[in-house]
Structures are given as structure tokens and as C-alpha cells.
Write a structure and sequence with these properties.
heterotetramer; A alpha/beta (337); B alpha/beta (326); C alpha/beta (337); D alpha/beta (321); B: 326 residues; alpha/beta; Rossmann fold; 2 domains; 7-stranded mixed sheet; 5-stranded mixed sheet; 14 strands; C: 337 residues; two-stranded antiparallel ribbon; 13 helices
Amino acid sequence: MHKDLNKNKCLQMYKHLYLTRRYCEMVVELGDTGFIRGPLHPGLGMEAVVVGVLNAAENDDFIGVSHRGQAASIVRNVNVGLLFAEQFGKLEGCNHGRGGTMHFNLFNEKRVFELDSEVAGKVPIFTGVALGCKLKGLKQISVVFYGDGAMSEGWIYESMNMAKKFNLPVIFVVENNRYAVTTKVEYSCSAKNLTDRAKAFGFEGIEVDGMDVEKIYAVAKESVSKVRNGGGPINIVANTYRFCGHFTAEKILNLHYRSQEEIAEWETRDPIATWPQKLIDEGICSSEEIQSVKEMVEKEITEAVEFAKSGKLPKPEDALKDMYATQYPGSPRKGWF
Amino acid sequence: MREIRYLQAVAEALNNEMKISDEVLVMGEDVRESLRGVTKGLYTTYGKDRVIDFPISEQGMIGCGIGSAISGFRPVIEFQINEFTFFAFEQLILQSQRLRFYSGGKIKIPLTYIVPGSGARGGISGQHSDNPYSFLIEGGMKVVIPSCAYDAKGLLISAIRDNDPVAVFLPTRVLAEKGEVPEEQYTVPLGKADIKKTGSDITVVATGHCVNIALEVARKLEEEKISVEVFDPRTLFPFDKETLKESISKTGKVVIIDDSPVSCGFGCEVSALIGEEYFNLIKAPVKIVARADVPIPFSEPLEEVVLPNSAKLENAIRELMGRTNA
Amino acid sequence: MTEQISKETMAGFFRILETICAAKESIATLAKNNEIRMQVKRINYGEEAIALGVCTALKESDIVINTSEGISSLIARGGSLNAIFAEIFGKSEGYNNGIRGSFNISVPELGIYSANSFSDTGVAMGTGFALASRLKDENKVVAAFYDNETVNEGIIHESMNIASAFDLPMLFVCKNSKNFKGPIPEEFLQSKEFGSRSLGYGLESTTVNGMDVESVYSTAKDIIKSIRETNRPAILECITNSCREELCGCKSNSDSKNVNCENEFNGKTIKENFSKILREKNILTQKEIENVQTEVSVLVKKAVELSKAGSDPKPENLTEFMYADEYSNILKTGGLL
Amino acid sequence: MRELNSIEAAHEGLKTEISLDKNVYLMKKEQYSDKKDSDNSNKDSYKNDKVVNMPKSEATIVSTATGLALTGLRPVIEFNRMEDIFLSFSALVDQAAKLRYMSGGELMFPITYLCAEEGVCKNNDGLNSENPYSFLIHGGMKVVMPSCAYDVKGLLVSAIRDNDPVAVFIPAMIRSEKGDVPEEQYSIPMGKAEIKKKGSDITVVATGHCVNIALAVARKLEADQISVEVFDPRTLFPFDKETLKESVSKTGKVVIMDDSPRACGFASMVSSILMEEYYEYLKKPILRITREDIPVPFSNSLKKYILPDGEKLESAIRKII
């Protein structure tokens, strides 16, 4: 076990993993039953990456996560009810019903921003956050997560170049779940190793098993301290897998891009199962303690859903508010009179 | 005649064009598996050389399309998400649209862009719900937006056979609708509007799924003896002025309903056109019912406010009719 | 191994080089005298050998994607001076009917295409030509030029990734000038040469002295041969001292008649070095060299005279240039009421 | 008062703003200068630590600025070629313009995009002659377009102090035109139009360098007893409807002159507002004098055909009156 991982921390990480998993499962359930609108992109199977990295980072570091990065809010102790409320389109939600599923903004309080409609678009934004840290002399670093599909976007290349040029405190974390929707990473990415993309710019690229939260934690811990001490950007490539489809609608699409065997094989490495087993095997904690975390989580989830369901819907007449911080009469223009 | 869904009509048109001509290629993201349903089954029929999946690199993909179009192919590029047009905006406008012009008319770029599922899809929020056609119109690109299955098949075929870049927008809200579609290949000419319903009191210019809204409102108002003419431009650019002129000279009143942001949008262009050329035919203000100038919010009650809908259209029509009646 | 370049070829190179230099000098003079609408600061010196070496190493059926400094490649591929100058004067006899003007001239009949861009985004277009060649089994190679200005654009990344992932026959020719003060390589790139970025795409990169016609030609010849055989793209990085006022800030053109960059480079260096080699190798005598120079300058003068007397393009043709298939009313009568 | 040209005025405003607010940074691409020597000296005198030289990666520069805003800075980005707007289009329209709303009004993006070499000028060829502001308006971004040196400084200062993304377009044609500019820092409120010349017969809505053309035409027509009111919106978006209402209620006739594409352009927007809200005042068709829907060709003889100019404006006014 890593030296910084004491019993408390280990159990805490388990809670993060399990809560994220339960949250995602709940979201899918609520989506199926019509409580949540639109397609959903849960990160089932990929929880360990965000949990490992965020536990290694400080609580005030800036985090930009992808549409499968729900774990980030959970690690930062956000009330899960705020996320549910947002997905229910309620006023109490973290974006007051404006952003919805893929755009959780908890930046002001928790320094976490989930924005991924643009695939790679958040990467330069968080490169900019790192530049801001540097210009303002802040000690924080910026960590940005993106998928293997986003690696083909020009923005990644430009951001990596800029990060290296300004020696920015930023960690690029690739959540390599092997498929950009249906396209295999070997098909779309021409680099022999994904870490070559970073090496091409002359900075470090580390590959790590994305299903093993301890290994991720260890790699992230070291990277965070290097980056914070002015070592410049680092690229972590975490190999992971999503157990579910790209989005919830995939169930009805009848796609054949991966085999059931492949999924089953990856499922044996599920961090939600392997991590507590390891804790018990190594005698760090008892199965009762694991069980009590589970119960705590179930309670939290139930309460959160209740909270969200009882929330208020935003008032229709507020739909045009908050477009601009400095308001002028007549803007934004209504589309009708 | 048989009835099929809008999306099936699109897929059929594409499939047949690929069958007829080896020059037609399909490019896009996840087009082999066909996430959007437009390219379903094409990969197994035509193979990897004609149905090409791209990495998520929109600029590179459009560039690749331009190059192969100049070399004699007719690529059909699918944008999986409407906002992806923004990523490749430079390639779309400055290159694909302008290369022919700046080469002095020496080259042809027969490209077709398909944007399946444009517009709000319900619960997909601000960055996946745009209808970016006004941007392309301003850039000078030909834009079509079929409103029913019949038009979809005919217009897509025309678009593919056209020798310039044409953007085809397929609004989410009509994709599942059924309509009569002939089995054989036929074309609906670009630049020709269609009167979806004739009427004598007021002209409603409606685009894409708004045509259905307009028809619904028209039927409702019929009971109140307001006769609404529903004008579907089908091709937004080049716009069919003549047919509009005929309609206006009959009715003298216009409401435009269009699902893109109002400022500098397509609605403004039609209104300005009327104000400039048909001012004397008009007897009342030209009203626009369009999206408000904000991104689409996630929450349902908010989304309803931002988007054009039948209630807003009805209000606008009533106001215009009332004003002149008074 | 590279075969010896024949004497005839070398003599041919000299004539082309001389033509390029003479044309550019003439353009610079015309620009300074405000006889053509071209900004002096955009005229580029020092990339002649690259264009010459690469273009002559290509087959006639191959494709060249030009940068905004396109005149060298045009002349190297046998473009007509008259049509080039007519275009620069904006006359209808020009290659693009006077529409395109001084930069980015596209000449389909010579296999030269150029994007409407100062950022050389035509590289992306190049992948399409290469794809078409592969699909049609034409065995063409596409040489796409780009320079320091473009090297940090994401579109380069996307194009290289696509070319490599799809095995397209493309040669990326990077014109890396050490003089450009804008994106200074040392400052903007942590890895020493742009070529090192090829790692990210699993590509081979070769670096040559871009001031040396022979080495550019023979290296390009080898690489192109291997591209044609393997269909694998490659990168050729040519280091130059080229100079362009807007990028290196020197006042080479504005201040004096002499085209002399403070960075000790101008087109003449390449020319003079090359003619020295020709003399040393007894390929051309001083007399013969002078003869070529006189002939070329006469041709250039004639082209300028002819172009000045050319006819202006007609507005009636504009819509035809814009659209291959016109429809009634495609254009409004903007401003022509 | 001393006279400055527009670029000098812009840099003066920007420099003062940088010294007043520690959060304002200038981000620019490439170190070379396109401008004249006088501008160079201006630029060099920026405090070095407040200028960030960015590699040429437009999309990422714009997006990076969005990130900077998240950390509380107020970046000013300088664009020097109009193709930059196209290259960074998604970062502008899909990120900067949308993220505040999508965050539920929690976040703020005080960013200024300074487009200082915009539009047609003598030596610009087609590519640099793009005028892409209507694209940004359609994307919901605030756009200002000053028409003289005084407005340049005042509006730029307002734009920097505004808490939202604002694009400031300084037309290439007015770049070197001089005007009176006070030395002290002042601001011109955004969203406020200005009547550059009063008149009673017809309102000419003119933007950017077209204001000067309109003024010249107005003076010329005075001799013919045609009194032209020249309306300069200054802020294209949000557009000042009230002032336009006053003007049109007086004249009842409008010509809109704008140097951007016609289809779905700024002129269409103004025209549609008139047709919808102020229809009762209108006595005549609203004519638009804009660019053709064709890119600007290189050849001078064709340029004249494509671009709006005084002749076209004059004939339009005469046609209406």
C-alpha cells in the first residue's frame, strides 16, 4: 500500500468510488424512468481514474472533468443532491437548471467544472486556468481530464504546446477507455503509445492502469508534487474501460463495436469490487467497515434523490436572465414580441 | 404510396446515391456503426473505402473532404453533433465555400454536409442544441432544411448532385415522422420553396420542424376563419424570393418562424428582404418568432420559453390579424 | 542510395532558381512602387530551394499544397510567368482570373492547390488529395508545405494524425525558418526541432538544410520514393534562414532597394551558393550563368509588361466563380440598387 | 486637444486600463508588428509582465483566455488577421459566449477581443477583408465597432470594463485616421448609439468606416436640400433601439450601410427590428447597402462592385427620396 494511504484515506476512497457508482447507476435508472431528460453519459467503470487523481491533488486545485467525470464532484464532497437537482432541471441544481447533465459547474465553491459537450474544448480552458495560476502566482495546479477520442482534436496539440512553452502547472489526464463512442483508439490514434503525444513536446507521459485506484493515486501524487514545484506539465494516460454504452440511448441502437467477452473481461477488474477486496485481504479494514460505508452511501443517495425531487422548477420568465454579467436594456433579445 | 420515416428517407436517398455513383463517399464520426442512423448498413454494403470513419478531428475531416472533392469524389460528410460545425468553421467557410471563388472558378467542390439532429433535442443543453445554419448562410453556403420525409429524400439527392458545398440540416424533431415517399429516386430542386398549405389572410414562413408547428396553428385558426398560408422555403439559401412575393401579394402579412437565434438569423434576413423589396406589398409589421439570443437551457420550462412554439406563433398571428381588423 | 544528380538537371535547377529570384525581386519592386496591391512585408525570401527541391523531386501527376509563399513552387512546377504576373496584377489573364491575387494561387492543371489562408491550413486539404489518390489507385504523392507560422496550429495535428492513421501518401514539408521573430522556434518549442513532433504520430521525420538545393532535392526524392512504395506519410523539415518582413521584423524591402536582411539572408545567398557549386563542378561557366540570368530577366520583364496591359476581370463572372451550379436569385443585389 | 489615430487611441486606452487594473492582461500572438513605426513605439511601452506572447494557435488562445477569466483575470486578446476568428470560432461562440449562461449565471467571463485589422483597406487582399462580426452577433456576443479615434478609446475602455466577452472591431479603413482624443481615461457607454449628424429627411444607419462615407454623402446632399441623419450604433450588439426609434419616427425613411455580408448580416438585423417594431413609422422600403454575398476579390475593378461605397449610398438615398 502507498505510504500516504492510511486506513481512513483508503475507506474514504472506497466511499468515493462506491458513491460515484451508485450515483451513476441511479442516474441511469432515473433516466429510464423518465425523471431525467436527454441522453446520459455515465462513467461506469471509469471511477477509479478521477477518484485516484483527485485524492492525490489538493482540495483547492482546479479540476476540469469530462462527461464521465461525475466522481470529481463527489470527491470534492459536493452534495449529490445538487447534481440530481440539476439533472432534474431544478432551480436548486448546481447550474440552476441551465446546464444539465454534462455541464456541472461547481467552480466557484469546489473548483470543479464538468464541461464536455465540446469533447476537447475544456483542455485549452484549463490550460488557461493554469496560465492564470502562474500569472497570479497562485500555488494551485490545474488538472484536466479528457478521453482518447478527444486526443485527435487540434486543441489538445495546441494546449500541450502552450503548456510546455509556458511551463504551466497542468496535468493532462487521458481517460483511455479504448473507444471514442464506437471508434477504437487504435484506429483513430496514430501514435504508437498514447504517451508519445506528450513526449513529442518534450514532457513526461506516464501510462497507468486505470482500474487500479492505488496505482493511479501513486502516479498522481508524484505528478502533482512535480507540477506544483514548477516542473511543467505532465501527461497521465490511464487505461480504463466503460462498462456501459457511450450514452444511455445506446441500448436501443444495436451496435456491435465491441464484444460481450471483452466487456466481461474488463468487468473482472472493476475497481468497486477489487479495491475493497484488496483492503480486506491486506487487513486494512474489515468487511463490516466496507458494509457500513455502503449503507452510508445508500442513505446519501436516497436523501439526494428526495432533495432533488422536492426541488422547485425554475420560473419560465427567468429564462433570459444570466446571459450577461453586465446587462444592457433589450439584451438578450427575445425571439418574439 | 408507402409511408416511411424521415430518417429512413434520408438513409434511402444516401444509399441509392452511393449505389448509382462510385464517386459518393461517406465521411464522419461513427458512421460505420451509424450513431445517428443516417448511414446505417452502408459500411457492410460499400466497405471501408467508401464509408470512412474519422478520428474526432473536424478540421482534418473537412479538409480531407475538400481535397477528395476536388479530386473528383462527392463526399457526404456527417456532423455527429451540430456544434462540430464550429470547430471546423475556418475549413467550412474560408476553404470549402471559397476555394472555388478564389481559384477563379477553376475547381469544383461537390461536398455535402449532413447535420442530423440539428436543433434542440430535449435535455441536451446549450452546446448540442444549436441550429447553425445562419452562420453558413452568411458565409455564402447553400443550405437546405427539409421539413418532411418526401422533401428530405429529394433535397438530399439534389444536394449530393449539386456541384457546390451544400449543408443539409435535418431537425431532430422531424426525424421520426412518417410521410409518403416514392421508392424511386427523385429530386426536389434547390432554391424552390413549397407552399405547404394555401391560405389567404397571412403568410407564415416556416423552416424545418417549424413547418409542422405552423401547419398545426393553421389548422387551429381555420376554425376561427383565419386562413393561414404556410410557406416552406426548403432551401434557405438560395432563397426563393419569387414564390414568397406571390404569397405576400395575396396576403400582405407575414410571420416568420425559425428555430435559430433571432439576431442576424435567417428570420432577420427574410424580414429585411421583405422590407427592402416587397415593402409596398406589406400591410402590417413583419413578425419574427425565433429562438431568443441565449443558449438552450437544460430545464424543460426554461427550454420552452427560449424555443419558438405554436403558442408564440399563434399570438403573433392573432396580433397581426387583430391590428389590421381594428 | 541517392543517385548522382545529372548535369542537365542541375543546370535546369539553376534556371528555375534564377527565375524564382528574378520574379520575386520584380514583385518586390512593383510592390514598393505601389504598382501592385501587395504588402511588401509578406514577400518571402529564402524558401526557394525548398520549393525547388521538393517540387522537382515530385512526379508531374503529384499534388502540391502551397503556402501563401506560393510563387516558388509555381515556377518550379513549370507555371507560366505571364499568368503568375497577371494574377498578381489582378488581371483576368491570371491563373485565378485576378480573383485570388498575389498569394495562395491555385493552379489545378499543375496540381497546385492552396488554401485561402495565411495559416497554411491547406495541409488538411492535402489529406483529401492523398485519400483520393489511394482510393483511385493513382499512386500520387501529396506534398503539403507549411511554415513556422502554422506549426502550432491544431489543424496540423489533425492532418498528421489522419494521414498516419489512414496510411496516406503524404509528405509534410515544414519550412522552419530560424529568422522569424514571431513564433521563435527556441521559445515556442521546447523540443528543438518541429520534426520531433512526428513521434506523436508514429512518423519518420528528416531534417535537411533548406538552403541547399541539392540536399533538399535528393532527400525529398528518397522520401517520396519510399512514400510511394509504402503509402506511409513522412515529414521533411527544412531549416532555412528565410526572411519575411512581417515575421522577422527586418526592413529588407521597405528601406532599401537591396534585398538584404539583417539576418544575413536573402534569396541571393541560395542562388550565389548554387551558382558557385555549378562553376566548381564545371556544369555551367560564368558566361553561361550570366546568359541564363539575362534570358530570365527578359522573360520576367516581358511578363510584367504583358500583365500591365491585361484586361480587368468582369463582374458578370463573379457568381459563376462562386458557384458551379447557380440558381436564380442566388445573390442579392447587394449595394447595386 | 491633441490628435491621435485610431490605433494609437486604442493602445493608449488599453495601456491605461492595464495600469489601472492589475487583472487586465494583453495576450497577443507573434512579436512582429504589422503596424507603422508609430504604433511600434506604442506597443513596446507596455509593461512586459502584462503582455503574454502566445504561440500561433488561435482556438487555444481564445480558449485559454476563457480559462484565465475563470481565475479572475480580465484578458484582452489581440487578433491581427480576420481568419483568426474563423479558426477560433468554437472557442468564441460555443464557449466564451455560452458558458456564463450554462453555468446558471455563476461564472463571469470578462474578456475583450480586439480585432484591430478588420475589413478592407487599400492593401488587404480578399482574405484579410473579412468582416465577421455578424457571425459573433448571431452567437450572442457583444460587439462594438467604433467609427472614429475618440470612440475607439472610449468604447475599448468600456469593453474591457464590461464583465462579458466583448469583441471590438476597429475597421482597417479608419486605422490611420486622426481625431481628437482626450488624454485622460474616459469611457463611452456600450449599447448607446450616437447621432453623428442631425437631419430630418432620412436616417442612414452606418457602421464603422461607413460612418465617414455617410457623413460625406450627407454633406454632399445638403446642397440638394436633402437632410440626412447619420446614425452610428457604435455598439452593434446590444443594439440601441430607442435612439433608432427616435430617429426613424422623425424621418420615416431608413438606409442601412454596413460592410459585412448581406445575408443574415447586421443590416438584416436592423432592418428586421424596424419591420417588426417600428413599422408604423416607416414610409418607404428599408434599403441595405452592404457587401455582396461574395468574398472580396483581389482585383480592384471587382472590389468596387462588391463593396459598399458613397456612390451606392447616394443613389439609394435619391431613390427613396
